[in-house]
Design goal:
- This protein has helices spanning 2-9, 41-47, 73-83, 89-104, 117-127.
- It is mainly alpha-helical.
- Helix 4 (89-104) packs across helix 5 (117-127).
- The longest helix has 16 residues, at 89-104.
Amino acid sequence: RAARTCLLAMPPGGDRAALRYEVVPLLTEHLEASCDIGRPPAELRRDLPELSFDDVPDVWWYVPEEHLRGITVAESRRLFVEEGRREPNSTFRARVDAFARLLAGRRERRLAAFAHADFFHELLARHFGRREPQYQDYWMKNCEVLRLEVFCADDLLHPFEEEAPPVLEAPPEPAPAPAPQAP
């Protein structure tokens, strides 16, 4: 879906065409529902011939690490349907941070990235929310466009980690009332 949105927004040969289109599997949706499972590159090539999927593996969405070796599209779908395998939040955040590092290493002055709401929510919160508080919990609308400025590549290398709330200690037990004395 994100690739289709890219081609609609910046059609090759159009006045808003990109100089280069690059498919980056890091931008996949947070795997939480069946619609977050992707399609193999062979299918994507048929539907989106304008894009190159040459560097995209057959299974480019989340698969638990212990199942990566020899994983097939069918097996990845079985893991989701029968075993309920979802992408852990820590793995998702690590992937978002890897994309931020990829951006930090780019030489281009302008880039357009197309992805899903959960991905951008996490990217904005972790890499832009410290400098721009409105992004600390920002959910983009469908097909919304944001223009973000990165003043220094280093800004993308140090994600904002929410601090754990302070642990509140229980108030001390009140001292027992003195026992009444007999007259």
